[in-house]
Structures are given as C-alpha cells and as structure tokens.
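fwd from M.: "can u put these together and see what the complex looks like"

so here's what she sent:
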Amino acid sequence: MRTFAYILHKAGVVDDSATELLTAAKKLDPGASPIAIVTGWGPDLDSVCDRVRTFYGEVWKIGSEALAYPNAELVRSALVKVLPTGSVLLVAHEHFGIDLSPGLSVKLNSAFVSDVLDIDGVEGTQVKVVRQEFGGQISTHVRCDVSSGAVINVRPGAFKAANGAPVLGQIVDMSDEVGALSAKRRYIETLVAESGGVDITKYDVLISVGRGIQEQGNVGIAQELADAMGAAVSCSRPVVDAKWMEKSRQVGSSGKTVKPKVYMACGISGAFQHLAGIKGNPLIIAVNKNPKAPIFQVADVGIVADILEFLPELTNKVREARGISAKAGGRQ
Amino acid sequence: MEILVCVKRVPDTSENEIVLNSAGNDIERDDLVFSVNEWDNYAVEEALQIADRVGGNVTVVTVGGEDDEEVLRREMAMGAKHAVLISDEAFEGSDGKGLATILKAFIEKGNYDLILTGVQADDGCAQVGGMLAAMLDYPFASLVNAIEVLDGKRIKVCREIEGGNKEVNEVDLPCVLSIQTGINEPRYVGMRGIRQVASIEIPTPCAADLGIDPATVGAAAAKVRRVDYFVPAVTKQAEMLQGSNEEIADKVIELAKAKGGFR
Ligand SMILES: Cc1cc2nc3c(=O)[nH]c(=O)nc-3n(C[C@H](O)[C@H](O)[C@H](O)COP(=O)(O)OP(=O)(O)OC[C@H]3O[C@@H](n4cnc5c(N)ncnc54)[C@H](O)[C@@H]3O)c2cc1C
Ligand SMILES: Nc1ncnc2c1ncn2[C@@H]1O[C@H](COP(=O)(O)O)[C@@H](O)[C@H]1O
C-alpha cells in the first residue's frame, strides 16, 4: 500500500491540513513514508514544495498552467495520470476535498471514505475508521476495503499535527507525466464575501444563536443581551439559511472566523463546521436544552436551559450589574 | 430544460434526538420522525425555480423502499412533475458507489440536462453526486449556492468556499451539481398540496428494468460498510452550571468579566 497526501495551499502558503494528513498516514501505516502531492504553477508551487519537503520525505510536484487554480476536475485528471494503481490518497475534507474525492475514487476504481475523524485499526486490506453522522450527534465505525486503493477524506483538525524532526525530502517533478489538461467546468473568479454592517470579528463578546432560536422574531432576545453586554450577535449556518440573519454574521468554515474573549453559543449543537470558525481559545459558554448536545464537550461552561427563557433573565442580570435601565438597552 | 433531482428520506434531526439503541448497534429507530434530507429540499426548490425561468420539467428520484414514497409525494406537492422510486432487494447495503451505479443506470434511460443532488445526506457522506458525475463522465460542482442558466449548453454556478467566499465556474451541460443549503427559500408544502398528489402513480423500476447487474450493487459489491453506531467516550466536558436561572446568570456574568469580556 503506497500512501499519498494531497497538499492544499493558497498564495504560496501551505494549509494546516498538510501536517495533519501526515499524522493520519502514519496512523494508517506506521512504517509508511507517505508521499506529498502538490499541484500548482509558478513560483508559488516551488515555495510550497520547498516548505512541504521539510516534513514529507518525498514530494511529487505537478506543475501546469491549467492547475494555477485548483479546479477539481483538472486536478483529478492529473492525479489519475500519476497515481499508481492501489494507492491510498489522503485529502482534507473541506470544500476542495468534497469536490475532488468522490469522483476521483470512481476514476481510480478505488474505495472512498468521507470525513474521517480517526483510524481505528488496519487488518490486512480492511481499514476501520471513525466517522460521525447526523451533524455529530452520533459516531460510527466504518470498514473500508482498500485492496484496490482508496481515497480517504480526513476531517480538518481531527488529527494532531506531529512535531517530527524536520526532514529534507526529495522533490520529484511529475509535471511531464500529466500533459495537457482540459475540463468541462472552468473556473472564472472568486467573489469575496461582503463584510456586512456589523463586523463580528471585531467584538470581545459574541452572543451566537443557532437553530434553537426557532424563529426570526426571537433574534431580538439575543440582540438585547448583546446590547446590554456591548457584544454582537453572531449565528450558525441554519440561521443564515433561513434568512433570519445576514451571511456576514455566520461563524464557521463557510462563514467568518472569530477570535472573541467570550463566545456564548445559544441553541447551537456544536457541528465541526461551526466550531472551525471559533479561534483564539475564548471562554465558550454553551446554553442548550439538550444535556447531550455535542457543544457541551467543547464548551468550558455549560447551561442546560431553554434559551428563550434563560437569555432574557441573563439580560436583566447584566443590566443590573452594569446599571443599565431596561429602556436604554432595548431592542435596536 | 429536463432536470432530475435525487432525494433521500432521512431521520429529521430537527424533530429527533439521534441516540443509540439499547443493543448499541444502531440508532434508536422507534418513533423516529423522517423527512426529506434538508439539502435535497433546497435542490428541488432550485430545480423548480430554474424550470420556471427557462422552461422545462422537474423529476424527483429516490433509491429506497415503500416508506420512501412519502418524500417523493412531498416534493411533487412542491411542484415536481414526475417522481420515480427505484427499488430492489438487490440494492440493500449499497455503498455510495452502489447508489451512484443505480442512479446512473436510471439517468441513462432518460434525457436530463441537469442533475441535482444535495451536498450531503444527514446520514451520508457527501459523495453520491460526485461519484455519479464521474460515472456519467459529466462535469460536477459541489457546494453550489447559485445557478444561472447561460444558454442550452452552459450554466454559471457559484460554489461556497471558505469564509463565505464564492467560486464562480462555468459548467457545460449536462452536468451534476450538489446543492448547498441556503441557496433559496424552499416553498411551503401544506397537507392540501400533498393530498392533491396522493393518487398519482409513481413508477418503481427494479434492477432488471434498468439493466443493472446485481453484482455491481448491494452489500456484496460494497467496499465501504458501516459496522456500528457508538457514542464516543467523553474526553472533555464543560463545567455544568447548576441552580436557578438567576444564580446561573450571576455566575455567567462573573466568568465573562473574569475573562475580560466586559466590564
Ligand atoms: C460544507 C458545509 C459547510 C458548513 N459551514 C458551516 C458554517 O460555516 N457554520 C455553521 O454554523 N455551520 C456550517 N455548516 C452546517 C453544520 O454542519 C451544522 O448543520 C450547523 O452548524 C448546525 O447549526 P445549529 O447548531 O444551529 O443547528 P442544530 O444542529 O439543529 O442544533 C440546534 C441546537 O439547538 C438546541 N435547541 C433547540 N431549541 C432550543 C431551545 N429552545 N433552547 C436551547 N437549546 C435549544 C438543540 O438541542 C440543538 O442542539 C456547514 C455544513 C456543510 C456541509
Ligand atoms: N438513496 C438515495 N436515493 C436518491 N438520492 C440519494 C440517495 N442517497 C443519497 N442521494 C443523493 O445524494 C446526496 C448526497 O448523499 P450522501 O452522499 O449519501 O451524503 C443526497 O443529498 C441525495 O441528493
């Protein structure tokens, strides 16, 4: 079994997942020396390869002007050309991995396992992995037959980056193997998200509401608390999907990354895509009516309560503590 | 434009708490409330809006059993013109590739310009759409949150990438897209709407009807198989605040102040 890791990078900077995939590869096969695959073009590609060789023993560099932007269809064609049959390829499970891997596994005629959190044992060609379903409410063991190879998508952050001694891996230029590439899907441009009226990345305290807020009319309850505390209201994705709040208020992998001092998660279950947006190790206070909600395993402080009842009480207390009258701290 | 939307019936996570059963080998399935996978409902709405804009028909399809018919009727009540239930014992235990193989066989009997799936099923792997596209040799885009039909041959789609940014792509038709939640506001379906489509006959092709070799689907062909469900050991647990809401509120204020959150 030869193990490969597809390296994500942007503007010449290697993504954190590159070292995490190395850890996952070692867990899959402690004796393996996984090979990093880097696709791209120009000086960025070279600097990324130079960086990646400090922790991977071997780096396959695939340079092509067509790969300057990582279009999954083009990357797939390139990988199909270079990967030996039976290879196991590790890919980070984020927007690019979701785009690339299922189709790649079809073209390689290998197995695909998605969003892997842990590797729980290897017996011959059977790999047992840990996944989650239902937004992290429950875990599963999944058995995958890797006898004809596999593409394994690994959840970002699930494997700790190893602090191995630096190596000086060799860079193998595979560009010639790839040749001309064309696709039926063409990248045009990236539209950068608008920052919105309230910039949630600038606040020390965030009152963050999830689906548990139940309806748009209730968002005001969180806003009142935020006003009393001098905080801002942020939210999870379903709140944006339902158009109750602006996209610019969303915390998470497909929303904003925030670094507050205090993050109060109200009616938020704790899905990894949401948690991915909370950085800087804030005090996380979770309020949820379900004592088994996964958020209680990441929060520092937990409160089992109905947010519609608890938040107004907290608001009153905060106003008392800060000497604010109810009117002054009223709804905006 | 002929549009096909692949839909799946799943336990509704907003109606149920998903817990382990007493035997510890499956989720507790008694009293589960099912609904159409949230992503798929957005996909159906998107298909209906496209058909409204440029003309065409929307078909919904699911691979499953008798129980799954209810979600097809629901999506017909939303406005899908046709529904198909692909069903065969041979399909049981199929992995993602098995499902994609089944859907591919069905799609090849039709003439679809655009095929939509959800990004992922609540109990799934975010895989069926991408696999299906690769098997059909159609282009694919995942995490789609906007679609614009350019002409009969091309569409423009936005993909949701990091930080709320959008990646704009031009895609040749026919293609497969996996639809992200929030792309639109799915219309409401009332009981009346569902009653109106209650008696419409839903075709239920089996493996033989679609020319599917049973050896390529089902448990025997599956390289990937769920072994069990479990609840992982708790590695970290929040300090749970006890007492009256007032007492808890005082404590929260104290903690937030200590952290420098506010004065
Ligand atoms: C590619 C991709 C990207 C994503 N990006 C993001 C992202 O950037 N940000 C993000 O947030 N999500 C993202 N998601 C979605 C994510 O997977 C979860 O679905 C989402 O975070 C769940 O939001 P939630 O916790 O508000 O809702 P749910 O998971 O439905 O949880 C609601 C919680 O509220 C509790 N509750 C209900 N009523 C009350 C009440 N009255 N009082 C107290 N508690 C109550 C429930 O017990 C439950 O725990 C993404 C998903 C995908 C597939
Ligand atoms: N049994 C099924 N029948 C029809 N479509 C399905 C089925 N399973 C999954 N899909 C489609 O594939 C998408 C992704 O599912 P999954 O790969 O299982 O997460 C779903 O949102 C559906 O659109």
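replying to her w this: Helices of chain B lie at 38-54, 69-78, 96-108, 128-136, 191-196, 218-221, 245-258.
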